[in-house]
Amino acid sequence: MTQEPTGQSETGQTGVGQTRRRGAVLEEAILRAAVDELTESGYAGLTMDKVAARAGTNKNALYRRWPNRLALGIAGYRQLVTTVQPPDTGELRGDALELLRGANRHWSSPLGAILRELLAAAGSTPEFLAQLQEQSGDAVAAPWLTVLGRAVARGEAAPEALHPRVATVAVVLLRNEFVVRGAPSAPDDVLVEIVDEVYLPLVRRRGPDPS
User: CA 159 to CA 148: how far, in whole Å?
Assistant: First the structure.
């Protein structure tokens, strides 16, 4: 008599007295497995077979939720990202430099390397780029808008400067150092240059039209 395998599956019993996992429980197990694979091997080493084996399920369970390994990789990466707490140095320049330095550390880290791999794999696919931008773009705007809002309240900037595209221009320029130039890390003098030569002049020029 053939025995059922002890590994968990979406399509059968996992053992005596155990029921198969469904819905959110199974999805959580798959995402946890994807996160483990990403942190161990990066996106290059991520495969549907490895994630299914680690999660104790079959590939069909993965493909029913994510169409391919890129979609699964993005979902796994999103589990790893944490919310950035905005600094409060008392001045916009200090806050901007602290945010840029934190972003530089992130992009230079193993987690940042995963993000760069995912961005390269996404190419020009709008759907996948949009999912990544929720973490690497739009979500980044929140702390920048916070520090810029404080600067407006202190009188360092006009209310017209409080715009997402203005607020995030510094981190977008830093991201280009990694994505376009392929830099493993940006020197601190580059961060200072971005803040002093681009970001602060742009913010300070934003104001009511004198006409």
Answer: 9
Classified as helix, coil or strand, 13 is: coil
Nearest CA-CA partner of 171 in 119, 211, 129, 136: 136
Q: Which two tokens stand for residue 203?
A: 């913010």
The answer, yes or no, to whether residue 147 has pLDDT greater than 80, is yes
Question: pLDDT digits over 39-67, tens only?
Answer: 999 999 999 999 999 999 999 999 999 99
- Buried b / exposed e over 90-116, threshold 16 CB at 10 Å, is eebbebbbbbbbbbbebbeeebbbbbb
For the chain, what percent of residues have pLDDT higher than 70?
83
Helices 23-41 & 48-55 angle (0-180, nearest 10): 120
Q: Tell me the C-alpha to C-alpha distance, in Å, between residue 79 and each of 87, 119, 133.
A: 23, 16, 14
The answer to whether the CB of 143 falls within 8 A of the CB of 171 is: no
Report which secondary-structure segment, H or E, holds 27. Answer: helix 23-41
85-201-108-69 Cα dihedral, nearest 10 degrees: 80
